[in-house]
Design brief:
Chain lengths: 226, 98
Protein backbone atom coordinates (compact mmCIF):
# COMPACT_ATOMS: atom_id res chain seq x y z
CA UNK A 1 0.00 0.00 0.00
CA UNK A 2 1.32 3.38 -0.99
CA UNK A 3 0.20 6.61 0.58
CA UNK A 4 0.99 10.11 -0.51
CA UNK A 5 -0.30 13.60 -0.07
CA UNK A 6 -1.61 15.16 -3.26
CA UNK A 7 -1.46 18.91 -3.11
CA UNK A 8 -4.88 20.51 -3.15
CA UNK A 9 -6.69 17.19 -2.92
CA UNK A 10 -5.87 15.07 0.08
CA UNK A 11 -4.18 11.81 0.86
CA UNK A 12 -4.09 9.20 -1.85
CA UNK A 13 -4.00 5.50 -1.04
CA UNK A 14 -2.94 3.26 -3.90
CA UNK A 15 -1.89 -0.33 -4.39
CA UNK A 16 -4.29 -1.25 -1.58
CA UNK A 17 -4.77 -5.00 -1.37
CA UNK A 18 -8.12 -6.70 -0.91
CA UNK A 19 -7.23 -7.55 2.68
CA UNK A 20 -6.20 -3.98 3.46
CA UNK A 21 -9.38 -2.64 1.88
CA UNK A 22 -11.33 -5.03 4.07
CA UNK A 23 -9.70 -3.53 7.16
CA UNK A 24 -10.85 -0.10 6.06
CA UNK A 25 -14.34 -1.41 5.30
CA UNK A 26 -14.57 -2.77 8.83
CA UNK A 27 -14.17 0.68 10.40
CA UNK A 28 -17.95 1.24 10.73
CA UNK A 29 -18.40 -2.17 12.32
CA UNK A 30 -15.67 -1.59 14.88
CA UNK A 31 -16.75 2.00 15.55
CA UNK A 32 -20.25 0.96 16.62
CA UNK A 33 -20.41 1.16 20.42
CA UNK A 34 -24.00 0.06 20.86
CA UNK A 35 -23.18 -3.48 21.98
CA UNK A 36 -20.91 -2.29 24.76
CA UNK A 37 -22.08 -0.04 27.59
CA UNK A 38 -18.43 0.59 28.48
CA UNK A 39 -17.68 1.76 24.97
CA UNK A 40 -20.77 3.99 25.04
CA UNK A 41 -19.55 5.48 28.28
CA UNK A 42 -16.14 6.20 26.81
CA UNK A 43 -17.46 7.83 23.63
CA UNK A 44 -20.08 9.82 25.51
CA UNK A 45 -18.73 10.69 28.94
CA UNK A 46 -20.63 13.12 31.09
CA UNK A 47 -19.51 16.68 31.46
CA UNK A 48 -18.70 16.23 35.16
CA UNK A 49 -16.75 13.02 35.68
CA UNK A 50 -17.30 12.71 39.41
CA UNK A 51 -20.54 14.50 40.28
CA UNK A 52 -20.57 15.64 43.88
CA UNK A 53 -23.68 17.79 44.00
CA UNK A 54 -27.16 18.17 42.61
CA UNK A 55 -25.85 20.82 40.26
CA UNK A 56 -23.33 18.38 38.87
CA UNK A 57 -25.99 15.72 38.39
CA UNK A 58 -28.19 18.25 36.61
CA UNK A 59 -25.32 19.21 34.34
CA UNK A 60 -24.78 15.58 33.37
CA UNK A 61 -28.49 15.04 32.79
CA UNK A 62 -28.71 18.10 30.57
CA UNK A 63 -25.58 16.96 28.79
CA UNK A 64 -27.09 13.59 28.05
CA UNK A 65 -30.28 15.16 26.79
CA UNK A 66 -28.96 18.02 24.69
CA UNK A 67 -25.29 17.46 23.83
CA UNK A 68 -24.98 13.71 23.48
CA UNK A 69 -27.44 13.44 20.54
CA UNK A 70 -25.43 16.04 18.69
CA UNK A 71 -22.23 14.12 19.31
CA UNK A 72 -23.85 10.89 18.16
CA UNK A 73 -24.96 12.57 14.97
CA UNK A 74 -21.48 13.91 14.32
CA UNK A 75 -19.76 10.62 15.00
CA UNK A 76 -22.23 8.76 12.80
CA UNK A 77 -21.64 11.25 10.01
CA UNK A 78 -17.91 10.74 10.31
CA UNK A 79 -18.32 7.00 9.88
CA UNK A 80 -20.61 7.60 6.91
CA UNK A 81 -17.84 9.65 5.35
CA UNK A 82 -15.51 6.66 5.48
CA UNK A 83 -18.10 4.48 3.78
CA UNK A 84 -18.67 7.10 1.09
CA UNK A 85 -14.94 7.39 0.39
CA UNK A 86 -14.49 3.63 0.09
CA UNK A 87 -17.45 3.33 -2.26
CA UNK A 88 -15.48 5.47 -4.70
CA UNK A 89 -12.43 3.21 -4.57
CA UNK A 90 -11.16 2.28 -8.00
CA UNK A 91 -10.02 -1.25 -8.65
CA UNK A 92 -7.36 -2.47 -11.04
CA UNK A 93 -5.59 -5.72 -11.57
CA UNK A 94 -2.09 -6.66 -10.57
CA UNK A 95 -0.06 -9.86 -10.68
CA UNK A 96 -0.98 -10.38 -7.03
CA UNK A 97 -4.69 -9.83 -7.54
CA UNK A 98 -6.96 -6.81 -7.50
CA UNK A 99 -5.61 -3.59 -5.99
CA UNK A 100 -7.59 -0.53 -5.01
CA UNK A 101 -7.03 3.20 -4.97
CA UNK A 102 -8.92 5.91 -3.15
CA UNK A 103 -8.32 9.42 -1.89
CA UNK A 104 -9.23 10.87 1.47
CA UNK A 105 -10.07 14.43 0.59
CA UNK A 106 -8.49 17.13 2.68
CA UNK A 107 -11.95 18.19 3.84
CA UNK A 108 -12.65 14.63 4.98
CA UNK A 109 -9.44 14.07 6.92
CA UNK A 110 -10.94 15.02 10.28
CA UNK A 111 -13.94 12.76 9.70
CA UNK A 112 -11.69 9.85 8.77
CA UNK A 113 -9.52 10.42 11.81
CA UNK A 114 -12.65 10.55 13.98
CA UNK A 115 -14.02 7.29 12.57
CA UNK A 116 -10.68 5.54 13.05
CA UNK A 117 -10.55 6.91 16.58
CA UNK A 118 -14.08 5.73 17.36
CA UNK A 119 -13.11 2.28 16.14
CA UNK A 120 -9.99 2.22 18.29
CA UNK A 121 -11.78 3.55 21.37
CA UNK A 122 -14.54 0.98 21.07
CA UNK A 123 -12.14 -1.87 20.33
CA UNK A 124 -9.93 -0.94 23.26
CA UNK A 125 -12.85 -1.35 25.63
CA UNK A 126 -14.61 -4.22 23.88
CA UNK A 127 -11.52 -6.42 23.61
CA UNK A 128 -9.94 -5.35 26.88
CA UNK A 129 -6.69 -4.17 25.35
CA UNK A 130 -4.12 -3.28 28.00
CA UNK A 131 -3.72 0.38 28.88
CA UNK A 132 0.00 -0.10 29.34
CA UNK A 133 1.75 -2.29 26.81
CA UNK A 134 4.10 -3.99 29.23
CA UNK A 135 5.87 -7.17 28.09
CA UNK A 136 3.64 -9.23 30.36
CA UNK A 137 0.44 -7.60 29.11
CA UNK A 138 1.50 -7.93 25.49
CA UNK A 139 2.47 -11.56 25.86
CA UNK A 140 -0.92 -12.31 27.35
CA UNK A 141 -2.62 -10.39 24.54
CA UNK A 142 -0.67 -12.10 21.78
CA UNK A 143 -1.65 -15.47 23.15
CA UNK A 144 -5.29 -14.53 23.44
CA UNK A 145 -8.11 -14.63 20.92
CA UNK A 146 -7.99 -10.83 20.77
CA UNK A 147 -4.74 -10.65 18.88
CA UNK A 148 -6.46 -10.15 15.52
CA UNK A 149 -8.58 -7.20 16.70
CA UNK A 150 -5.45 -5.77 18.30
CA UNK A 151 -3.55 -5.91 15.00
CA UNK A 152 -6.53 -4.26 13.30
CA UNK A 153 -6.50 -1.53 15.94
CA UNK A 154 -2.76 -0.99 15.40
CA UNK A 155 -3.40 -0.68 11.67
CA UNK A 156 -6.01 1.98 12.36
CA UNK A 157 -3.60 3.78 14.66
CA UNK A 158 -1.00 3.82 11.91
CA UNK A 159 -3.55 5.31 9.52
CA UNK A 160 -4.39 7.97 12.08
CA UNK A 161 -0.74 8.84 12.48
CA UNK A 162 -0.39 9.21 8.71
CA UNK A 163 -3.49 11.39 8.46
CA UNK A 164 -2.18 13.50 11.30
CA UNK A 165 1.12 14.02 9.51
CA UNK A 166 -0.16 14.47 5.98
CA UNK A 167 -3.52 16.18 6.31
CA UNK A 168 -4.21 17.50 9.80
CA UNK A 169 -0.98 18.62 11.34
CA UNK A 170 -1.54 22.29 10.71
CA UNK A 171 1.67 23.57 12.18
CA UNK A 172 3.80 21.02 10.37
CA UNK A 173 2.21 21.72 7.05
CA UNK A 174 2.78 25.41 7.57
CA UNK A 175 6.38 25.10 8.71
CA UNK A 176 7.88 22.25 6.80
CA UNK A 177 7.14 20.09 3.79
CA UNK A 178 5.57 16.77 4.68
CA UNK A 179 6.90 13.56 3.27
CA UNK A 180 5.43 13.44 -0.21
CA UNK A 181 4.88 9.72 -0.19
CA UNK A 182 4.73 6.93 2.27
CA UNK A 183 4.86 3.32 1.33
CA UNK A 184 3.51 0.77 3.73
CA UNK A 185 4.84 -2.74 3.32
CA UNK A 186 7.03 -1.74 0.35
CA UNK A 187 8.94 -4.25 -1.67
CA UNK A 188 11.58 -1.70 -2.47
CA UNK A 189 13.76 -0.06 0.14
CA UNK A 190 13.88 3.67 0.23
CA UNK A 191 17.30 5.05 -0.54
CA UNK A 192 18.02 7.69 2.03
CA UNK A 193 20.60 9.25 -0.27
CA UNK A 194 17.82 10.39 -2.60
CA UNK A 195 15.80 12.05 0.07
CA UNK A 196 12.62 13.83 -0.90
CA UNK A 197 12.41 16.01 -3.94
CA UNK A 198 9.40 18.29 -3.84
CA UNK A 199 9.78 19.20 -7.52
CA UNK A 200 9.11 15.64 -8.58
CA UNK A 201 6.22 14.93 -6.26
CA UNK A 202 3.52 15.00 -8.90
CA UNK A 203 3.47 12.99 -12.08
CA UNK A 204 6.89 11.51 -11.57
CA UNK A 205 7.50 8.07 -12.88
CA UNK A 206 10.30 7.35 -10.55
CA UNK A 207 13.00 9.78 -11.58
CA UNK A 208 16.32 8.84 -10.18
CA UNK A 209 14.93 6.53 -7.56
CA UNK A 210 16.39 3.11 -7.27
CA UNK A 211 14.23 0.46 -8.89
CA UNK A 212 12.42 -1.93 -6.63
CA UNK A 213 13.11 -5.58 -6.35
CA UNK A 214 10.54 -6.31 -9.00
CA UNK A 215 12.30 -3.97 -11.39
CA UNK A 216 9.66 -1.29 -11.23
CA UNK A 217 10.56 2.16 -10.20
CA UNK A 218 8.61 3.50 -7.25
CA UNK A 219 6.07 6.10 -8.19
CA UNK A 220 6.90 9.61 -7.12
CA UNK A 221 9.69 10.22 -4.71
CA UNK A 222 11.24 7.50 -2.68
CA UNK A 223 8.77 5.69 -0.51
CA UNK A 224 9.44 5.54 3.15
CA UNK A 225 9.03 2.77 5.63
CA UNK A 226 6.45 3.50 8.24
CA UNK B 1 -19.74 14.48 3.33
CA UNK B 2 -18.06 14.86 6.62
CA UNK B 3 -20.03 15.90 9.60
CA UNK B 4 -16.79 16.04 11.43
CA UNK B 5 -16.83 18.85 13.94
CA UNK B 6 -15.29 21.78 12.25
CA UNK B 7 -13.43 23.66 14.87
CA UNK B 8 -15.05 26.93 15.75
CA UNK B 9 -12.67 29.78 15.73
CA UNK B 10 -12.85 31.36 19.12
CA UNK B 11 -10.89 34.35 20.26
CA UNK B 12 -7.71 33.57 22.08
CA UNK B 13 -8.56 32.95 25.67
CA UNK B 14 -6.79 33.75 28.82
CA UNK B 15 -6.05 31.32 31.55
CA UNK B 16 -6.65 34.04 34.06
CA UNK B 17 -9.71 33.53 36.15
CA UNK B 18 -12.10 36.42 36.04
CA UNK B 19 -12.61 37.55 39.60
CA UNK B 20 -16.01 38.91 38.66
CA UNK B 21 -17.33 35.42 38.07
CA UNK B 22 -18.97 33.77 41.05
CA UNK B 23 -17.60 30.32 40.49
CA UNK B 24 -14.94 29.68 37.90
CA UNK B 25 -14.85 26.26 36.31
CA UNK B 26 -11.87 24.25 35.19
CA UNK B 27 -11.84 22.45 31.87
CA UNK B 28 -9.82 19.27 32.36
CA UNK B 29 -8.39 16.86 29.82
CA UNK B 30 -7.81 13.36 31.21
CA UNK B 31 -5.36 10.76 30.04
CA UNK B 32 -6.58 7.85 27.98
CA UNK B 33 -4.68 5.01 26.34
CA UNK B 34 -6.02 5.53 22.83
CA UNK B 35 -5.67 9.13 21.73
CA UNK B 36 -2.35 9.92 20.07
CA UNK B 37 -0.18 12.51 21.75
CA UNK B 38 0.18 14.59 18.59
CA UNK B 39 -3.59 14.61 18.15
CA UNK B 40 -4.20 15.79 21.71
CA UNK B 41 -1.73 18.60 21.16
CA UNK B 42 -3.35 19.55 17.87
CA UNK B 43 -6.87 19.65 19.30
CA UNK B 44 -5.83 21.76 22.30
CA UNK B 45 -4.17 24.17 19.87
CA UNK B 46 -7.22 24.32 17.62
CA UNK B 47 -9.84 24.77 20.33
CA UNK B 48 -8.05 27.14 22.66
CA UNK B 49 -5.74 28.89 20.23
CA UNK B 50 -2.69 28.05 22.29
CA UNK B 51 0.82 27.90 20.88
CA UNK B 52 2.29 24.52 20.01
CA UNK B 53 4.65 24.81 22.96
CA UNK B 54 1.88 25.51 25.44
CA UNK B 55 -0.39 22.80 24.04
CA UNK B 56 2.46 20.31 24.08
CA UNK B 57 3.18 21.11 27.70
CA UNK B 58 -0.48 20.48 28.58
CA UNK B 59 -0.53 17.26 26.58
CA UNK B 60 2.55 16.01 28.42
CA UNK B 61 0.92 16.89 31.73
CA UNK B 62 -2.09 14.82 30.70
CA UNK B 63 0.17 11.96 29.70
CA UNK B 64 2.40 12.04 32.77
CA UNK B 65 0.04 13.18 35.53
CA UNK B 66 -3.22 11.84 34.22
CA UNK B 67 -4.93 15.20 33.76
CA UNK B 68 -4.37 18.82 32.91
CA UNK B 69 -6.46 21.91 33.52
CA UNK B 70 -6.47 23.46 30.08
CA UNK B 71 -8.72 26.42 30.76
CA UNK B 72 -10.49 28.17 33.65
CA UNK B 73 -13.41 30.57 33.40
CA UNK B 74 -17.13 30.97 33.24
CA UNK B 75 -19.37 27.94 33.30
CA UNK B 76 -21.09 28.35 29.95
CA UNK B 77 -17.81 28.78 28.11
CA UNK B 78 -16.39 25.77 29.94
CA UNK B 79 -19.34 23.65 28.75
CA UNK B 80 -18.71 24.77 25.18
CA UNK B 81 -15.07 23.79 25.40
CA UNK B 82 -15.85 20.39 26.90
CA UNK B 83 -18.34 19.75 24.11
CA UNK B 84 -15.67 20.60 21.56
CA UNK B 85 -13.17 18.32 23.28
CA UNK B 86 -15.71 15.51 23.38
CA UNK B 87 -16.51 16.04 19.73
CA UNK B 88 -12.86 15.21 19.08
CA UNK B 89 -13.17 12.21 21.42
CA UNK B 90 -10.79 13.52 24.02
CA UNK B 91 -11.63 12.44 27.53
CA UNK B 92 -12.54 15.73 29.16
CA UNK B 93 -14.75 17.25 31.79
CA UNK B 94 -15.26 20.29 33.96
CA UNK B 95 -15.21 20.96 37.65
CA UNK B 96 -15.49 23.95 39.89
CA UNK B 97 -12.14 25.60 40.43
CA UNK B 98 -10.94 25.62 44.01
Amino acid sequence: MKIKRVAGQGVQFSNVSQDQLHLFEQIPLHADPTASPEAEARLFPGVVRRPESGEHEQLNNDWEEYVEPELRSRFSGDVDCVTATLKKARVSSSPDGPVFEFTILQADADAWYSALNQARLVMHVRYHFPDEETPEEMLALLESENVKPWITSRFYMQMQSILLDLAMNDWQQADEPAQPELNLFPEEVWDEEDGWDEDEEEGDDGGDDEPGEDGEKPAGDGPKWV
Amino acid sequence: MPSSPQTTELPAVSEQTDDALDTPWNVIVYNDPVNLMGYVTLIIMRIFGYSKEKATKMMLEVHQKGRSVVWTGEKERAELYVEQLHSHQLLAGMSEAE
